[in-house]
Design a protein that fits this description.
- With about 280 residues, the chain is α/β, with parallel strands linked by helices.
- It has two domains: about 10-150, Rossmann fold, CATH 3.40.50.720; about 155-245.
- Helices cover about 55% and strands about 15% of the residues.
- It has helices at about 15-30, 45-50, 65-70, 90-95, 130-140, 150-180, 185-190, 190-205, 210-220, 220-240, 245-255, 260-275, and strands at about 10, 35, 55, 80, 100-105, 120-125, 145-150.
- It has a seven-stranded mixed sheet, sandwiched between helices.
- It is elongated and about 65 Å long.
- The relative contact order is 0.09.
């Protein structure tokens, strides 16, 4: 399918923050787009039957019921994708309840971004290649950094990228709250890296706690990531309590060994993104 082809796109859950963001994105690039949500003229059934591309921008809690309702209505030659933060169960549900082409999509950014250019999007191709080629091509043409994963690879990785990251931020915030330390003092003495962490903690006030709870509780790989992290936190904490200088240096050097391969991956990634 030629990427210059311009399908009609229907977004179910189009009144949500990411639904509205993608509605603007498509309109800005000249693609016809319609939304269905609570109180809209178009129903979810209207979108499923009449739009070549159906995008589910739904809370994960309501995702299963909506997919069961609209999946059988989508013509087999059409395309179904979603914007959920998790993929294993979501992709499987889309496959089980439809006969159309299917791909899981995860925009790795929030609705505060002005543009998709330079933003990461994970894709999990599941059934069919024609529409997948169009969708990937559209994203890349507009500057997105697309990465392909299987649904299980995606969710296992997101347990570290999202779930553990959120866990660390929440623990940092609660620790600062309990200590009662003056934020003015922290900011006057903060290193650049710690100031970046504080800024991320501060930006949690703009986020949806329901979504974050779903990301933490809904990913089956989260417990392993959290348990691995807390195990090493306990080990390092005991080393510090024992004033075990040699033990601290040993762990520090072990982590330093991760540096060269990580730096190589980062440099390779930068080169691949250069025009």
């Amino acid at each position: 399918m030629e990427n210059s082809f311009s399908p009609r796109i229907g977004i179910i859950g189009g009144k949500g923050r990411m639904g509205r963001w993608f509605e603007r994105q498509f309109k800005d690039t000249g693609i016809e787009v319609a939304i269905s949500d609570i109180g809209t003229e178009l129903s979810v059934e209207d979108i499923a039957k009449n739009y070549e591309v159906v995008i589910l921008a739904l809370p994960m809690e309501v995702f299963p019921d909506v997919v069961k309702k609209i999946g059988p209505l989508i013509p087999s030659e059409h395309f179904l994708t979603d914007l959920c933060s998790l993929k294993e169960k979501q992709v499987e549900m889309m496959l089980q309840n439809s006969a159309c082409e299917v791909c899981g999509s995860h925009p790795l950014f929030g609705p505060a971004e002005d543009s998709i250019e330079g933003r990461r999007v994970a894709l999990c191709p599941a059934r069919g290649t024609n529409w997948y080629g169009w969708w990937k091509g559209y994203l890349e043409k507009n500057g997105a950094l697309v990465a392909e994963f299987s649904p299980s690879e995606h969710d296992r990785t997101m347990a570290w990228v999202q779930a553990l990251n959120h866990f660390i931020l929440l623990c940092l915030g609660k620790s600062l709250e309990e200590d009662g330390i003056d934020f003015k003092h922290i900011l006057k003495l903060a290193t650049p890296s710690f100031e970046r962490q504080l800024n991320i903690v501060a930006r949690l006030c703009l986020q949806d706690p329901e979504l974050y709870a779903t990301i933490q509780l809904g990913n089956p790989y989260t417990p392993t990531a959290i348990e691995t992290f807390t195990k090493h936190a306990r080990i390092l904490g005991q080393i510090l309590r024992d004033k075990d200088r040699a033990g601290f240096i040993r762990i520090f050097r072990e982590v330093q060994e991760l540096g060269p391969p990580l730096l190589r991956h980062c440099e390779n990634k930068k080169r691949r993104q250069c025009p």
